[in-house]
Write a structure and sequence with these properties.
Shape: globular
Largest sheet: 2 strands, antiparallel
Number of strands: 2
Protein name: Dol-P-Man:Man(5)GlcNAc(2)-PP-Dol alpha-1,3-mannosyltransferase
GO cellular component, one term: endoplasmic reticulum membrane
Number of helices: 17
Radius of gyration: 24 Å
Strand order of the largest sheet: 1-2
Main location: endoplasmic reticulum
Distance between the termini: 92 Å
Helix content: 55-70%
Strand content: under 5%
Transmembrane segments: 32-48, 60-77, 106-124, 130-157, 169-186, 222-240
Number of domains: 1
Pathway: Protein modification; protein glycosylation
């Protein structure tokens, strides 16, 4: 269980010894492929655990991170008030894989996600500048946080317009420059290509979601391009028809909010849920990430934490009849079973895709805007009768 931890410690040890060329930072599992925020955080853990030798202490620290992560997630769910309380039992106690990712394997994914959930809490408090700072810090630990970026960009445009969101984006960019500056000054190309390598190939033996494909298809660049186009199409559809609820064109998001027209849609469950409220923030961010996970080129076992804590909200954010709770619980159970099947099989990876597809379908149809109510024009006949009556 300590393979990745030792590799992390070897990677940051090079930095501790003065190596600033990112291409020279390596571990037993290969070269360092995470941005600079990872290096600083795990360098702190490196010194706190006696140069990485006190693994038991590291596990205690990650257990504390796990509890903090749950606290941040619960705070988000309390603000949205959509998920029935019994579902939190499954979130806390029923996932062996999540406990393993946090406390046994000591991956960097939980660190990035905990910072991300802290950023979302700040967004819910309308502290957008601080939230963007924390969001960028999470990206600097692991790039999977970028799956939330399309949703965040939409929210920034929705609240501030094009000119208003530029300072927030500058906060995100500036932090990346500051964190990466020691490495950028020595070997900028090496740092950027290693820490933000979007074209990195994944090993077929570790894939959880594409086991049913032949390996040559899994590694094919055309397949990767098709997944990217599917992802972009999904984001476009959700942005146009599910995230954007105003009757104005989506291009109106580029205007200053004070200059926009604000039509008053009827107060239905959907409009109360999405239009500008705190649940709109959570829905946009969580669904943006979920679309990215569904279209991922490969999911490894530690990637489960990317969306595990968002699944209850995504399944229960839509109106649910009393008898419809059980299929959603069943869906959570099947997803958990798929992630606990090691090594992955054709059946487990196909089942995972089916569950993801059902989740997307219920998100799409469950959040559809209500049909417009057309008032029939007044009949002329009664008017003629009333004239005769006069």
């Amino acid at each position: 269980t300590e393979i990745d931890w030792k590799a992390y410690m070897q990677e940051v040890e090079g930095f501790a010894n003065g190596t600033l060329d990112y291409t020279q930072l390596k571990g037993d599992t290969g070269p360092l492929v995470y941005p600079a925020g990872f290096v600083y955080i795990f360098l702190g853990l490196y010194y706190a655990t006696g140069r990485g030798t006190d693994i038991r202490l590291a596990q205690y620290l990650f257990a504390g991170l796990y509890l903090l992560n749950l606290l941040l997630v619960f705070r988000i769910y309390c603000r949205t008030n959509k998920v029935p309380p019994y579902v939190f039992f499954f979130m806390c106690c029923a996932s062996y894989r999540i406990h393993s990712i946090f406390v046994l394997r000591l991956f960097n994914d939980p660190v990035a996600m905990a910072i991300l959930f802290l950023a979302i809490n700040l967004f819910l408090e309308e502290r957008w500048s601080w939230g963007c700072l924390l969001f960028s810090l999470a990206v600097s630990v692991k790039m999977n946080i970028l799956l939330f970026a399309p949703g965040l960009l939409f929210l920034l445009l929705q609240r501030f317009g094009l000119l208003g969101c530029i300072p927030k984006l500058c906060i995100c960019a500036l932090l990346q420059v500051i964190l990466g500056l020691p490495f950028l000054l020595v070997n900028p190309v090496g740092y950027l290509t290693r820490s933000f390598d979007l074209g990195r190939q994944f090993q077929f033996k570790w894939t959880v979601n594409w086991r049913f494909l032949p390996e040559e298809v899994f590694q094919n660049r055309a397949f990767h391009a098709a997944l990217l186009l599917t992802h972009l199409a999904g984001l476009g559809l959700f942005a146009l028809h599910r995230w954007h609820r105003s009757k104005e064109s989506i291009l109106a998001l580029l205007k200053d909010p004070a200059e926009r027209k604000h039509p008053s849609p009827p107060l239905t469950v959907n409009n109360i849920l999405w239009e500008g409220g705190q649940q709109g923030i959570v829905f946009v961010l969580f669904s943006s990430n979920f679309l990215g996970v569904c279209c991922s080129r490969s999911l490894h076992y530690q990637f489960y934490v990317w969306y595990f804590h968002t699944l209850p909200y995504l399944l229960w954010c839509t109106p649910t009849a009393k008898l419809a709770h059980m299929p959603k619980v069943l869906l959570l159970g099947v997803i958990e079973l798929c992630w606990n099947t090691y090594p992955s099989t054709v059946c487990s990876s196909l089942s995972l895709h089916i569950c993801h597809g059902l989740g997307l379908l219920q998100l799409w149809y469950g959040t559809a805007p209500p049909p417009a109510l057309h008032t029939p024009p007044p009949s002329r006949r009664p008017a003629a009768i009333s004239k005769k009556a006069q």
